[in-house]
Amino acid sequence: MKTVDGPTDHVVVVGAGLAGLSAALHLLGAGRAVTVVERGTVPGGRAGHLERGGYRIDTGPTVLTMPDLVEEAFAAVGDKLAERLDLIPLHPAYRARFADGSALDVHTGADAMAAEVERFAGAREADGYRRLRGWLEKLYAVQMRRFIDANFDSPLRLLHPDLVRLGALGGFGRLDARVGSFLADERLRRIFSFQALYAGVPPAKALAAYAVIAYMDTVAGVYFPRGGMHALPRAMAEAAADAGADFRYGHDVTRLERSGGGAGAGSDTGSGDRITAVITGRGDDQVRIPCDAVVLTPDLPVTYRLLGRRPYRTVPLRFSPSAVVLHAGTDRTWPALGHHTISFGRAWKGTFRELTHTGSLMSDPSLLITRPTATDPSLAPPGRHLHYILAPCPNTRIGPGVTEWADLGPRYRDSLLAELERRGLDGLGAAIEEECLVTPADWAAQGHAAGTPFSAAHTFAQTGPFRPRNLVRGTTNAVLAGCGTTPGVGVPTVLISGKLAAARVTGTGTGGRGTVRAMKGRRP
Q: Any idea where the Amine oxidase domain is (predicted)?
């Protein structure tokens, strides 16, 4: 495994999102002094927080899977997840509601889910579910160690017996067809393939290997931190601070200083290839933070601007669909909703075509509705409820542009509420007391390329060793982390990306399981 050159005693991590916090904890555990620079006033990045009228709103991801990865980050500094965070397992993990009026609770326990599938679609489908579950478990076991939790120096690293095992499992076929080989019921097939949307690829075109995301959602378990998802980055930041990390909040990184001098809007343009300091602010407000190495976690366009170069790709990056999100604090709720509810429209293949090809809004939307107050009522005032409605939409490169969303956003918000009322959430619009609407224009304003928080799509040409690398040419001591680099999009993979970035700095491990642990409370 290639690592950064030269000394690495003091590392500056740019960004206190989940990737940056994961990198910080693993770096601290390997004995490095760490400074975390964050433009916001609190940790979290995409996993942000908003308080409005007594409602405590998570502005980022709402689904937490694979808590062992969180545990591993805490363990790097001798800490324990249970001492920092109260994780509540969700039973069911999801509730699925279909256009024909049928509904299914998605359980992560094998027996409970098999019984639910049998009730929903009969004994043959229940048997198919058990075989599908076994396949997902094998798929995960082959992929995690070798292809997800791994640093790639070259595509040649793929040449391993596990690649043959992955092929034997059908991992290079198409996701929709492979799931269909186990389940005949089209509604059930959606449950185990809709996750491909967040990877930016329709299930009919996605590699079957991407079913590993369905494993995380439907087998490994879904959790919710008491206090909301933002409690996760807060807990990680507290553990890192207790282990000696220096946090600089409210500091926007404006350029990187390189050996050889020079000045530029993004990165110094001198002849040196080593970053010697991170500069925040401008003019008289500039602060210089010396470093031996730097971990960059902003979205790719921001990172490349700071580095002063964009790696050459023969084919431009393709970006995932975006999302419109309506956060709604209401004076009532609806018993049919679970903590997470997927409301499917009748359309399926056409929906993906709209989102990834034609660039039009969903004509028959499938929506994710999260009701966190079902698990933690403290997130809303007494007797009130919080709902998060996510509608996938095209990114700004293929769909409506940034300027169009000023008028389109409120109209689309109204159409979503009307559609949900038609689907049984009577009086939803009138029940809203506080709300926050987020559109692709808002994601773009936060620096996300193509107006999407889901970054580069997971096409074959943008996966594994073909995804933007976490080591970049032109500098000897900078590493990338976050959803734009390896291994990709999602809370589990972003946590892994921080660990992989730390391994590039420290040389400890190969990016597989196991980082060097430090004594709790160690100060650099």
A: 18-505
